[in-house]
Amino acid sequence: MKACSGAGRKNAYVNLALCILLWASIPVITKKMLLELNSLQILFYSTALSTLVMAILALSRKKAADWRQYGKKEYAIMAGLGLLGNYLYYLFLYGALSKTTAAEGFILAYTWPILVLLLSVVFGTDKLTVKKLAGMLVSFCGIIIITTQGELTQFNLTNLNGDLLAIVGAFVFALFSVLAKRFDFDKIISVFIYFLSAFMAIVPTVLAFSTIPLPGSDVWPWIIFNGVFVNGISYVFWFKALAGGETHILSNLLYVTPFISLLYIALFLNEPILPSAIAGAVVIVSGVLFQYAKK
User: Fold this and answer.
1) How many secondary structure helices (H) and strands (E) does the chain include?
2) 3-state class of 219 per DSSP?
3) Residue among 116, 112, 81 nearest 247 (CA)
4) CA–CA separation, 173 vs 214, rounded Å?
5) Dist. CA 267–CA 235, nearest whole Å
6) Rg (Cα) of the chain, in Å, rounded?
7) Global pTM?
8) Which end of the chain offers a freer environment for a tag, N or C, measured as fewer CB atoms within 10 Å?
């Protein structure tokens, strides 16, 4: 794997920072939307808006030649990736959160950055070292401290089916990230196809197992923000980050996301930031800095 240039690495971390700021808002946004919608309905509206936004970006910024560079095989691969990361992942994630506790599901779902690193090793795009793995595990300990509020001995698994769904969902998104990086498609075109294929899958799903209600005016701002930014444009940022940065560092830095989530929760849901959250953040940052330290 070629070394990333200084400018490329800097751009990668800027894109990652944007991802973290957006993805950290998921708990608040989801809680707001769940006041009126179930998980399938949220996924339907989110995917519909994300598809629309990416269609506008793709059609306005890409020329005909950009689209013609790919054949049926490449577009089929993009569609398959969309079903993997933009449809199946959210089905597993929402299914897990509906069966298990938020803390438990959150910990298990955030095993995906570690799985990104491990799958990168399997596919030969990164090398696993003791230092990288140790840094990842240290940061993961920070996640456990935050989500258990420091009561480590009180954390017990509550629902095996929910736990398995969370773990499978984490694996699905990690596989999606690694494969998408491996194929190196145009970021805007590919993300549009990802969401288009996911939308084509969620429509029959929601019609078969739920309904499509018209949300109230209080929920629409959250739906729009989630569909346009959190679940839409953030994917472009994520794949640009993967293209220009080092996988193990990017994956580790993602563990800052839950702490930023706590700041959002305190601001929008009036929940206090606990001392355990501060301690967890220190552990997370320590894991990141450990990987930067010289041998």
Assistant:
1) 16, 0
2) coil
3) 116
4) 29
5) 25
6) 19
7) 0.80
8) C
